[in-house]
Amino acid sequence: MSPLPPQVLSPLDGRYQAAVTELGEHLSEAGLNRARVKVEVEWLITLTDRSLFGSIPLTADQKAGLRALVIDFGQAEIDELATLEAVTRHDVKAVEYLVRRRLVPLGLESISELTHFAATSEDINNLAYALTVSEAVREVWLPKLRALIGALRTLAGEYRADAMLARTHGQPATPTTMGKELAVFVYRLERIQKQIEANEYLGKFSGATGTFAAHVAADPAVDWPAVSREFVEGLGLGWNPLTTQIESHDWQAELYGKVSHANRVLHNLATDIWTYISIGYFRQVPQAGATGSSTMPHKINPIRFENAEANLELSSALLDSLAATLVTSRLQRDLTDSTTQRNIGVGFGHSLLALDNLVRGLGEIDLDRELLAHDLDTNWEILGEAIQTVIRAEVSSGRSTIADPYALLKELTRGKRINRADLVAFVQELEIGDTAKARLLELTPAGYVGLAEPLVDYLG
């Protein structure tokens, strides 16, 4: 790969290009223009298939030749479009002229006037964006999310029985297992993943104000809504019958809201893993040749998770803005969406970069089981919850007359460190049934994890 020019403005196109380059195949200006060419080509084929306006159906070879304009779209077309747009001052008109030019060597000059027939630029644009966004999500972003979820699933299974001290409000709390905590994130992310996979991608093709006026003027006998629906659905999109000049962008707002939600859950994951690293529960595995600090040789900084945090915040900020603004268009059309939609790739790019860092980061950590065991063994006071709950059950069952079990344990444990001997002595003096007392005397912090291990199985 040739070096990038030093004046590249976005870090996604500079420093981080390698991690997001696949998105550029879809959500770049070139990707948008390739999709525009596809829409223009498929509209030509749709019109000629119906023999409209004196045309005749194209042969299989002629259709293949037209579709090759999309398949072979490359630097020559990118450069030519730039030249055309410098004159037209209109990006979609430049695409129309490009397609018209390409009809000549294909021997299809006779259908030249059907290029962009009865279409407004937004008919082309809305379908092109729906195509590029759906492809980017399904072929690039979702596979990376699935890879991250897969890595978390593996770790959840590996650590399902590894008891650790929980920290509610940052304070020692009822133990859990590392596997169960990671399974929580798997469950959350898989729910959102399914919602994103089910998101609609809608399109319209109904003219300057969504009324098919030009179409009907050209031929009032044609069922233009039926033609439009067949065309849009033939592109693999859902058909929106009621629009202004623009497709209303509601599907985009829904999608970006869901992706932003995923970003925030991922942000929670990044901050939790960072915290587990900071307290030593996870060790970072040294990477050959890597430097953690420019001055402190011993350090391994959790940069994967910090980088992910920052990029998730940037992504959600942009996607939230898109979701909020794209649903509004003054009356039948304004151009505010023209600029905003060109930043869709930036929003997804920062999210994709974060996912890449999270996947890499999860592969560079290891659980410190000795520290987990040490923390549990130095926090016996967390068993106060178990003891007061058992006493309450005994009182309710008529085997104890202890008043206010919670207050009793609060006096023993709140703000204090106690050890096993302290708890054993306390339990032995309790007025409770022998079976309950024996169960409490056997309890340890490491064993007080409830159903944490089998709960992981709910992931399926």
From TrEMBL:
Does the keyword field hold Cell wall biogenesis/degradation? no
The stretch of residues making up the signal peptide is none
Q: Its pathway?
A: Purine metabolism; AMP biosynthesis via de novo pathway; AMP from IMP: step 2/2; Purine metabolism; IMP biosynthesis via de novo pathway; 5-amino-1-(5-phospho-D-ribosyl)imidazole-4-carboxamide from 5-amino-1-(5-phospho-D-ribosyl)imidazole-4-carboxylate: step 2/2
The residue ranges of the Adenylosuccinate lyase PurB C-terminal domain are: 329-449
UniProt keywords (A-Z) are: Lyase, Purine biosynthesis
Job of this protein: Catalyzes two reactions in de novo purine nucleotide biosynthesis. Catalyzes the breakdown of 5-aminoimidazole- (N-succinylocarboxamide) ribotide (SAICAR or 2-[5-amino-1-(5-phospho-beta-D-ribosyl)imidazole-4-carboxamido]succinate) to 5-aminoimidazole-4-carboxamide ribotide (AICAR or 5-amino-1-(5-phospho-beta-D-ribosyl)imidazole-4-carboxamide) and fumarate, and of adenylosuccinate (ADS or N(6)-(1,2-dicarboxyethyl)-AMP) to adenosine monophosphate (AMP) and fumarate.
Protein name (Swiss-Prot/TrEMBL)? Adenylosuccinate lyase
Q: Name the species this protein comes from.
A: Cryobacterium adonitolivorans
